[in-house]
From TrEMBL, chain A:
Keyword Iron-sulfur (UniProt): yes
Protein name: Rieske (2Fe-2S) protein
InterPro entries named in the record: Rieske_2Fe-2S, Rieske_2Fe-2S_sf
Record-annotated Rieske domain positions: 14-125
Iron recorded as keyword: yes
Lineage, opening ranks: Bacteria, Pseudomonadati, Pseudomonadota, Alphaproteobacteria, Hyphomicrobiales
Pfam family name, one: Rieske
Superkingdom, taxonomy of origin: Bacteria
Organism: Aquamicrobium zhengzhouense
Keywords assigned by UniProt, alphabetized: 2Fe-2S, Iron, Iron-sulfur, Metal-binding
From TrEMBL, chain B:
SUPFAM superfamilies in alphabetical order: Metallo-dependent hydrolases
Coiled coil (residue ranges): none
Entry protein name: Amidohydrolase
InterPro entries for the chain: ACMSD, Amidohydro-rel, Metal_Hydrolase
Span of the signal peptide: none
Organism taxonomic ancestry: Bacteria, Pseudomonadati, Pseudomonadota, Alphaproteobacteria, Hyphomicrobiales
Residues of the Amidohydrolase-related domain: 19-366
Pfam families: Amidohydro_2
Keywords: Lyase
Amino acid sequence: MTATGRPKREPARHVVARVDEIAEGKSKLVHVEGRDIAIFNVKGEFLAIANRCPHEGADLCKGNVVPLIESDDPGVVKLSRHGELVRCPWHGWEFDLRTGKSWCDPARTRVKSFDVAVEQGKRLVEGPYQTEVYKISVDEEYVVLEL
Amino acid sequence: METSVLERTDDKAETLGVVDCDVHPAFSRPDQLSDYLPERWKQHIREYAIRTANPLLGTLPYPRLTPGNGMRRDSWPPAGGPPASDLDFLREQLLEQCNIDYGILQPLAAGSVAFNMELGAALCSALNDWQIDKFAGPEPRLRASICIPQEDAKDAVAEIDKRVTDRRFVQIAMPPRTIEPAGRRRYWPIYEAAEHYGLPIGLHTSAFGYRPNTPSGWSSFYLEEHFAASNSLQTVMSSMIMEGVFEQFPKLKIVLVEGGFSWLPSLFWRMDREWKRMRSEVPHVKRKPSEYAAENFWYTTQPIEEPEKNTHLLDILRWIGPDRLMFSTDYPHWDFDDPRYAFKVPLTPAEKSAIFRDNAIKLFGLEK
């Protein structure tokens, strides 16, 4: 039996936040198709990962947003990628907001990352998109998550 | 704001509630304990503060994971105050969410290690009143620990005598980093009282102690402090066994809290071997050291060890015996273990109910 003729499942676009709702360095928890997803504002860019920490289940949306801390030699510390990692609110696992991989165990301990984009309200009103709560205004910008 | 909320499938297969052997209640304001002190000590603290062996006054020797100071970042009560100071939020976030039937309070405050021993005794007594007034009184699922000034055994025993008829107290609490190793005879009157009353003694690894966190002094990093906790509990065990405490008090029950357990096999392989070779140095130690470990000691699980291969944990756990381990969360501290997810090994239903509930019910007499 082949899949020929069956409808393809198109990715759905969900309007999950108004851009001004998530301040820089902050996050918002959203629920989309039964999933808990944490959306972060990293210097104006929006990144999304699954909210549940794979280690013991804490809410990553409540974690501290941190830079990458590295050291080539004792006494020399390098900070980079400011705001691009979230540290779990319980045990401090650091997850890369761009990939969902943890820094210490990227192969095994990782969360799913999701594509998000910022869209103008005037483009959204043309659809297709899913929103049950947001009244889309043509003058505003929205965070749209693809699932 | 949400477009849809689906119920997350819950792993809570077990219907029986959990016993959490390590819950840390907190003061709602820094001077709250003074409400339970006589005027003489209130004034003393105002004028001279509470001096302990900690190198810095008024802070932990290793301030940690700030902002949050070592607390779960999601544990700050919405109504204000520090984590675990608000009973309603503690009920909601810990007892309800984690299906906890009983939580054993482990107050971490300076009473047992104050340099001024009279002040220390007063602080312990105040801590005991405070636990009942704010937590174990209004919430029957929470049970208290009798804090004692262990360096003055007479005062310590007096505090035990004073509290023992109140069944809301289910254990005696003392810190592991005592002035002398825990097996020394200056502490025996406490052990005599504990055995007499059938009350376990919980030794919780703690930021407080008379001694530095390692045998060579203070470590540089908090990360080192975090596992130095195991060393302090190993010292407690070997000292109590080698001094003959359990020959004198065979029914004494000791709970080692928050120091791990995976080190037990190797410690006792060594201790048993040396005992076989040098038993004549300690003829009062009549049995193999591991036999005392299997009869007089219990161990709480948090922070759970996480070997690369989870099944290794199972081997260790079965060496120790599932009847010795008792689940704990350490709420509201950052290294909290969630009973639903902490054990990543396939326990049998019997092991599970022993570790998560039955061992503690029996040890602390919780359902009498």
